[in-house]
Write a structure and sequence with these properties.
It is built from 16 helices and 15 strands. Strands 8, 9, 10, 11, 12, 13, 14 and 15 form an eight-stranded mixed sheet that branches. The N and C termini lie far apart (about 90 Å). About 25% of the residues are buried.
Amino acid sequence: MEDSMEEEQSYHPQAVSYGNSAHSKSPVVSSDDEWVPNCDEELKPKVGQLFDTLEEGGQFYKNYAHTVGFSVRSSSETKDKNGVKRWKYYVCSKEGYLPNKTEVKEQSEPNVKNRRRSLTREGCNAKVVFKLVEGKYELFRFHESHTHSLASPMKRQFLRSARKVNPIHKSLLHAYNRANIGPSKTYQLLKEQCGGYQNIGCTQRDLQNYSRDLKTLIKDSDAHVFIDNFKRKQEVDPSFYYAYEVDEEGRLKHVFWADGICRKNYLLFGDVVSFDTTYRTNKYSMIFAPFTRVNHHRQSITFGACFLANEKVNSFIWLFRKFLEAMGGHNPTLLITDQDPAMKVAIENVFTSYIHRFCMWHIMKKVSEKVGVSLNANDEFNNSFKSCVWRSETTSDFEETWKSIISRFELENNEWLSHMFDIRSMWIPAYFKDIFLAGILRTTSRSESENSFYGNFLNPNVSLVEFWMRYESAIEAQRHKELLADNNSLHSIPKLIVAGKI
């Protein structure tokens, strides 16, 4: 490239503009209806200035631009055969003109949706040109005047080149995402931390765009990153167990995992296991199913978790075998699940010496849907039905009361209630009196608490990688509560001794 580079395309005159910055007074009018902002001399670029690096020169020009009130865009450059930049243009963001929409549509690839972009180019000629001279970058050319209005002091925070999602923003965004806090709420928290929107350094849209672009980046490798994370965890902690399976097209089909603490908890509390497949917690509509139970503080604890692509018998057989493998082959005494028929078949194929019952919380949640709006609003029906389920002391009491309710409220043709009566031994407490630890089924608070726990940090729009971050955060919170309860128990023992209760 010749030293005497020609100026780029001509300017496009605009309406009267003004220069307004902390260092500006009034603009100076140049000969061609361009407007020169007033600025302190020490902040203004000068031809002949030298910079050690191109980044240093570019930042100097951006600082000047932000002070004056316009945004900078990186433009053309020329490199030598070794890839070293010899010439570099930085221009006003309103430099040049965008091609019309018809040309853009013709040039774009078919079936590719282009995002709408606002028109920001106005043919402004403001620019700075750097030239490599003896290892340093010389400010070779500086065009100072503009053809448009400049940003007022209150609006300079919105200049594109003044905004940046910096490492601090990214770190906080990832941290808040672990707690199921999205970009919009994160931006509000940043405002409080920084003392105002003007001090954040980016806009809410910038954070949302960064989050969107990050999801797009990992979209095609989401499952690979998810599984690679398990591999790294196992390298650090050999007690971490995971297993997965892919289909014929290489897509993730099943995955199960349990860390060392999960496996230890199973040895201590694994006599009763609850398995729930009612969660849809990722954008691939895979089924999230945790293995849980309550500990000695009656808090829910997790033994392991999995993702399943479907609820077929073979999927459950694969999962239950991996679960037993992770837990040293020890069968639970009592299994509590929902009413999935495929799961029931798989349990019979895999587990030995077990008792299988249905979760009452899931069943009782369905009553309002199955009996209709009018009966659901009927207090007499609700009180009678709950009393029949929970307070029947014997099987004969239950059957007599049930038949009375069905007759009184004319529900003889309700197929769901008929089916629930046929499988009454799988869920009615009166049939569990001879089963050790079956008393845990007499309350729905465990299942309700568990459902609320997972619902607080999961939603059906997250990727697998996002899910894992939130899952780990939730498990940390679960275990912290257990430690807190242990600590409170230790402090309460001396008080019980003094009171003569121990």
